[in-house]
Amino acid sequence: MTRGGWRALDVSWLPVLALLACDTGQSPVTGIGEPMVVHGGQFIEGDLPGARPPPDDGGVARVGDAGAGALAVLSVTFAGTQVVPGVSGDSFGGDVTARAAAVGVRLGDLGTGYWIVPVGAPDTQVPGALTFKVSTGFDADDAPGLYPLRFVAIDGAGNAGTQTDVQICIDSRIPDNGHGCTPAASPPAAVLTLQWDTAFDLDLHVVTPSGADINPKTRVGEPIEAGLRAIPPDVPFIDRDSFRNCIPDGLHQEDLVFQDPMPKGAYEIYVDPFAACGQAAVHFKLTVTQVSGKCPACTFAPTATKTGELLASQVTGGIGPPLFVDQIFVE
Questions:
Q1: Which one is the CATH code of 7-170: 1.10.3470, 1.10.287, 2.60.40, 3.30.70?
Q2: Rounded-to-integer distance, Cα 323 and Cα 187, Å
Q3: Would you list the domain boundaries of the chain?
Q4: Adjacency order of strands within the sheet including 145-154
Q5: pLDDT digits (tens, 9 = 90+) for 192-246
Q6: How many secondary structure helices (H) and strands (E) does the chain include?
Q7: CA-to-CA distance for 141 and 129, rounded, in angstroms?
Q8: Other CB atoms within 10 A of residue 23 CB
Q9: pTM, whole model, 2 decimals?
């Protein structure tokens, strides 16, 4: 392929949380820029306290054999362990022993510290246990792959028990068919991605060599046989209409996915500034990502990028034509 010129801190904490911050000799910080944030949590710089989980923990939440007076995470529950970086709302919860006053959590050994949340109400189904809940968000720049999400019970004096690991998969922001967490899975042959930096409604348009205009309003590039539920692998498609009608989705990204190799010819790339959503301007980036080699030793990496800026005065509202950005050639 060739290309053309191409939170603020929550202070309503139990006394234990303020005590922990004082004991570490650190002033409160927000955790901005960390690979993971915990909404409503307090960020503490430094290592997650407590002993590491045993080697045979297997990355699966354990039910501890905790006796009276023990300090432990008894269980971790979750709807799923696959998370999308840049999107908030992944929740983890569970039970801790009654001695715990807070729960600490950290994404492996990444970042500069960990988060703590106070424990909740007693679990009516588990005698002597208290509940906890953690609402997480993962940074858009987190690299895809498997990571341990570590939890630890902490008491009112700052003592910590043994950590418990839950293995999670951080998905690639660029659709990769799960390759980042399962190397044997083959990624798409190519993905054309439009990303932007602010609350602006942009639409990616790609005109293929056959003349089809693939865009979020016409997401599939070729006719599909009636009755088929899934998009066939030889049909390119756009995965979403991001920020449609100025409704936040946490992504600001649209991807044209080619599961099979791109047909030869010229591809014209356009960006439609559909709505400004109250913004004066937006910066965007176009990226071509391609697979090379044979999986699981294959690589899925960017091969071309281009950046640009659009102004509110250029908004089309879907009435005017999209703006031409560049042309790429597949030989």
A1: 2.60.40
A2: 30
A3: 7-170, 190-330
A4: 42-45, 113-118, 102-107, 145-154, 164-170, 82-83
A5: 999 999 999 999 999 999 999 999 988 776 555 555 556 777 789 999 999 999 9
A6: 1, 20
A7: 37
A8: 12
A9: 0.77
